[in-house]
Fold:
Amino acid sequence: MEEQRSDGTEPVVTDAVSAPDADGRPRRATRRFPRITRDTARPEGGGRAAPGDAPAPARQWPILVVLSAVGLGLLLTALDVFRLGTILIGVALLGGAAMRWTLPDVGMLAVRSRFTDMVTYGVLGLAIVLLALMAQPRPWLEIPFLDDTLHFTVRT
Structure:
């Protein structure tokens, strides 16, 4: 924090750590974030996925692919194709995780750091796919130890 001296000649730096900038004025040299945030940094890889002169949808194609697949999965679920619709939703999230890992810039698909986005998309996508495969009636995937964990529930 800079404050003017009472005579108005030189700024006084009240921060504990300071260093001169290119003009010789004292500035903060600490890497600690300021107490009041004035701007938000773009997440890593949050740049355009296509050149700036491309039309808006082309610049954001990764998130449009994921949202289109999720929309199709929701439509299938609404049309009573529950299992395939929810599997498609999970696969769309897994595809988002794969794009976040492989592509350098994914536009608005980047929300947080690359690692956090990959883990979030991947865990949610895997959980949705596994739950869709285990859904009743006639599950496509049966995990044997789940019957043991449900030992105390009422069965008919």
In short: The first helix runs from residue 56 to 59. The mean pLDDT is 79.
